[in-house]
Structure formats: C-alpha cells, structure tokens
Amino acid sequence: VQTQDIIHKKRLGEKLTDSEIGFIWDGYLRGTVSEAQLAALAMAIVFQDLDTDELTTWTSCMIDSGQRLSYADNPSLPLVDKHSTGGVGDKVSLVLAPLMSAAGFRVPMISGRSLGYTGGTLDKLEAINGFSVSHTPAELTRILSECGCFIAAATDDLVPADKRLYALRDVTSTIASPALIASSIMSKKIASGVKHLVLDVKFGKGAFCETYEAALTLARRMVGLGNASGVRTIACLTSMDRLIGLTAGNAAEVRESLDTLGGEGPADLTDLVLNLAEGLAELAGKPVSRAEFIRLLKNGDALTSFATMCALQGASLPLTLKAPTDTREILAPRSAKFEAPLAEGVARAAFALGSGRSLPEDDTDPTAGVTFLVAPGTYVHEGTPIALLETSRGANALDEAERYVYASLTDVPAARVADWIR
Amino acid sequence: VQTQDIIHKKRLGEKLTDSEIGFIWDGYLRGTVSEAQLAALAMAIVFQDLDTDELTTWTSCMIDSGQRLSYADNPSLPLVDKHSTGGVGDKVSLVLAPLMSAAGFRVPMISGRSLGYTGGTLDKLEAINGFSVSHTPAELTRILSECGCFIAAATDDLVPADKRLYALRDVTSTIASPALIASSIMSKKIASGVKHLVLDVKFGKGAFCETYEAALTLARRMVGLGNASGVRTIACLTSMDRLIGLTAGNAAEVRESLDTLGGEGPADLTDLVLNLAEGLAELAGKPVSRAEFIRLLKNGDALTSFATMCALQGASLPLTLKAPTDTREILAPRSAKFEAPLAEGVARAAFALGSGRSLPEDDTDPTAGVTFLVAPGTYVHEGTPIALLETSRGANALDEAERYVYASLTDVPAARVADWIR
Q: What is the ipTM for the molecules in this complex?
C-alpha cells in the first residue's frame, strides 16, 4: 500500500480501514509520510470527512505518539473533567474543578493557554502569585490524591502528534474539519486519564462555532468520539454572544472565580457552573443535587478545595494576585439599563489590555482584565462607574480597551441557551 | 496576505486573483510557500477547480519558472504542433510533424517519454541509430529552419515548475484535477513557442480519460487555456479502446511510421494523421486539402522531411533501427476474422517486452515491440502467424507478452470516433 492510494480513497469519499489510518500515522511520525501528504489528506478530510470509526482510530493513533496519563480506579471517587470550546470570560474551569472535588469527584484537568481572543485557563491561574501550571505526571498524581483536583498544562508527551498536525493544519487552511477539530480536542482529554467528560460547546459571535448548527455538529462528533474511546461524554451547547459573568482577562477572572467559589458570583456564571456540575455528576453515576452543590459553595468547601489545589501547585497562602501598574474606571456614557456586555467587544478590550496572545510564543499580561461593576438589569445614571480596566501595558492599552468596552455596551437583555447533547 | 488565506479562499470555492496566484507561485519557487501548502491547495483545486482566468494565470506563473522558446515569426510558415494525451500505438507525431513540414508549416515539437503503459515519442525515436532527442535552443532553431520540424526533449528550463508540481501531485493524489492536468500539458506547449495547436484527446479503456465525458472536460479546459494564452487551439476527441495501426513499442512503431510516411500505412493511422493535419492547417489559416496531404505521403516528400529531420538530429542515413535479440511469431489460436486488437492487452504486451517504464528513471528497450501481421477485417486460419514480438529482454518477456497478445484478440470490429472541439 502506498500513501497516495490512501489519500486517493479519502479523496473519493471512501472509508479508510484501521490499518490504512495506522499506516498514515506510523509513516508520518517516522517521516515516510511527508508533511505534503498529510496536508493533502487533511484537505481531503475537510471535504469528505471521517466517520466515527475512522475518527476513533485516527485519534487513538495520535494519542499513541506519546504517553497516556492514568490514575488508580476508585469507583467512589470518579475521574471527571470538563472542556469548553472557549467563551469570553469563561472561567468555569476555575470554579467547577474545585467544586466537583469538594463533592467527592476527582478532576485531573489538563488545560490550555490563550490564543488570539480566546482566554486561557493556565494564563489566568498564573495571575496567582506562586502558581505553577507545569508538573510531572508523578506530581499530578500526588496533587490529585491530596486535594481531588488539579489544573495543569499538558506534559510534553501528551499527544505530541496533535501539536505537529495542528501547526500543519494552521498553515494549510485545514482547521475547518469538525472531525479533525474533535480529534484535536478529544485526543488530549482521552489521553489525560479522565473517565467522564462534560463538554461546554459554545456558539455565537464570541465563539469558535458561530452558529448553533456548527456547534451541534462539533458536539456530536466529540460525544461520539469520546464514547467510542472509553470516555463517557456529554455536551452542553451554550450561547456565547455575551460576556460570561462580569470579568474578562487574567487576574480579574480569578477574582470573580473566588467570589463564585464562595457562593457570591454572578447569577449567569453560577448557573452555568451548576448546570455542568449536575450533568457531570449524573454522567459519572453519582448524582448530586443542585442544592448540595450550592451548599458546597456557600459553606466554603469549594473555596477550600481551590486554595488547597493552588497551594499544592506552588501558590503561597493566603492567595494573592499580581497587581496591575495601570488602571482606569469607565463611566456610563448615558443613563440606561445595563445589560450583559457583547462578547466580541469585551474580548477585544481584554486582548488590548494584554490578556491574549497573537502568536503561541507571545506573553500575556497576568494583571490584564476588564471588570464590569454593575449587575445586568440594573439602571445606571450617566457618569456612574461601570467598568474597571487593569493592565501593566500602559495608557495606550487602556485607551484602546476603553473604545472596545463602549462598543460592548447594549440595551438588549441576554437570552442564554443551554441545550444538552448526550 | 498569507498563504493559508489564499488556500482558504479556494477551499471555499472562491475565485483567486492574479496577485494571489502570483503570490503562491513566487513563494513556492522561492521556498516561502511550503510543499505542504501547495499540496493542500492542489487538493482544494481538485474539489473546487480553477476557472479559465485563474488557470491562465496559474499556467503563466508556471512557465515563468523557466525560459520560453521562440522562433522568428513568418506568417507564410506557420508554427504548428500537436499533442496527444497518449494512445496505445500512437505514433501520429512521427508522421504528422514531417508531413506538416512537407506542406509548408514549421513544427517545433517538444515531446515526452514513456511512463507506465503509455508509449513515449522520444523513446520510439531513439530506436533509430544515432538519433538524439537532446538539443540546445540554438540547435533546435537551426534544425527547424533547415527542415521545418524537430521532435526533441524539453530543455531543462522549459517549465521546470511543472516537474516539481507533478512530482508533488503524484504523491498526494492530486493528479485528478482537469484544470491541473490541462495546465501541466499546456504549459509546455505554450512555452515551446508554437502558435497553432491541435490536441488529440483520447478516451476509452486504453486512454488517460476513460470516458468520453472526461475527455470532453479535459479538451475544453485545454482549448480554453490555449486560446487565452495566445496559442490558437482545437481538440479532436478520438476513441482509444483499440490499438492505433498494427504496432506498439519502440522500433516497431518507427517502422510503421516510415510505411505511413510513404503512403503505405494502415488505414486507421493514416486517417487519424490526415484528420489532424487538415484541422491544424485550417486552424493556422493556411488550409491544405486531404488530397494534397495524401500526395505528400505518396510522392516521398513527407518521408524526405522525416529523414532530413532525423539526420539533423544525429541519425545516420540511410536510417537503420536497433535490432532485437529475441523474437517470436504468434500464431492465430483459431480460425476467425482478425479485428483491430484491444488496446489494453497490446499495451501490456508492449510493456512486458520493455517498451514502457515503471519509474521515470528506468530504461526502455528500444528494440521492444509488437507488430500485428494481418489487416483488420481479414479472415485468418488457425496457425497462421498474426503477430511478431521483438525484445532484447529474453524469453520470459516473450512469454508474458504472448499471453497479453492473446488477450488483445477480438472478433468485434472497431468503431472509431473522432469529434472536433473548437
């Protein structure tokens, strides 16, 4: 069999066998299948797709390029995790992981960094003084057993093939395949040793998937792939045209997460966390009521979990955040009801302040962020402070962010959607 | 502008601008557009096509990777050429070029070699003792002015980009785009300095295009591209399920070409040559009657043209052919009417004898060939010699070829088609 014959089959829309997919990946990793051949195959897949069988094998081959993580099985402490396709101000991971841990689950959460306008959980956590995202598998095992959760960067040998393929797809305009997107996301989750996974798939102007239909397609591919790969998986489609909570950026989101972990977070964020927590607990065969999760927020258990996790990951207690050198208050430009800000404007404001990165090798500013000061639905008078900008990148960053904050203001109340895909 | 944005446009089926196509080719030739990116773009083109504007620019960029050949314009001696997409036993070039020259046209024919089951005009000519296919542009100019035609290999800097792209397409299963096929063929013809071109596009079991529809699509793309690029172009769609003439191979085809140049060739081959000659003369604005072309075959002028061309290209006169070490006569397996043999079987027989090559770097055997000894429509008795096999590759080659010759025999008369596309 030759590589071009396999590309040929896929170009014609035929189903590839396990051994053909294995031939491609084995050859690509050993250098006998060229970058050009994989690029051509990826483009053929954009047009002709992979079915769940093909995708499961494809993903398994990618995972086999590195080492799988695993943790001792303990049915009374189910291994659970969450992945979001990226929302503006999406700090759900920072709240959900310690909350699930407080409720008797283990959450070995491998997370990522910001790219473009999408925030990164690891960048946010690094706003905490002393917090380290890099740990060896042995350290991760110890942290998980001591506090029931961690949020850390992928180890170098967690699906190294994904990094290589993603870089190739990026320069060859072959990102757009739902199958290949699902494979890229799920490969890391499957390899991370988790057994039950809830996906938060965003749709809307601020999201990777602009339409409900695109999010539905991606969600179904990921759910199918997870279940076929030994990870029980469900997905929640949630709308993403508005900011989640009232903050976007690094330190600002950690502050809001701490509020939410203490039961004092904004209603929309708390609601989203509780939805996902309930779904995940049920999926793992250990249902927990919404009231019980609220109790764990109110009684300090979730917050204690978070603090313990941070300490085990290097943070000094009490937790302190990196402080910005420049701040600015934004005043209401006119008297009006304040509603949840438009995601796109807020994302651009947070990016301008330094919370995002244009290229993977760029730095983000841990102190950067936008914090809105008013609860949605509140009537505010012209000149009232409505937002606080923070950055360590100077007045120009503040000026640019200010313009985007104004552009994010709207009179229209948010209509949030959360549909389950199982 | 970035390469992936251009690939993205084509992936979505949008039309690329001249500057975008220029950006791709400039970058590919300078190394800033990678093989992987061109492979992905080629695959996107397989699915989304290039229109004639895009294809004309694409082809022009490919040509600009090297040097164009050109000859002084002389309206009374039009520059004409023919290209065939490759038929079994297709020796039309060897007859047509000298015939057109004898009729007062100039034919600067750049031709190719055999690959797989497709015969190569250059390999056939090399069966003539002393004949050389490699000449400098200055030599080609002199030969053309002295005898009105040449048949030679491409110089190294005639569309070098085509070799590189073809090699890439070959390993990435992106040959199949009619636009890219048209571009690969026509780039070399456009760059060769010819002004009027007739294309012989084959369809059928022995042809590159298996169906009439595929041949029609390819013919239309090439005609459109030629006319848009300053080469007046027409195409003739001809059926290719049967052997053309009665020979396939190297020396055998030269012998049959000499017969045909002398007016004593098989009817189907002579007819095909005369059709193409008439079409080409009319296209070049200098019509020549069929009767006149027949006169030039019968009176020895075409044959003299061929001999002069061969001598100028290094052959010793009188022309002699390389002789095989092994021959075998094939006898009629039963009494029946003999009809034009099936192309596929003959192609395999000729290949077995050594007239083709599996890889571009392989050698062919100049002495290899099949010659049928009976005119189609003739009744032959069992045991009568019907074919002669020649090779210098021994008895095993003869054994294999013999089996294929039997497989090529049929009782069904050939129904030849020749449709003009202008």
A: 0.87
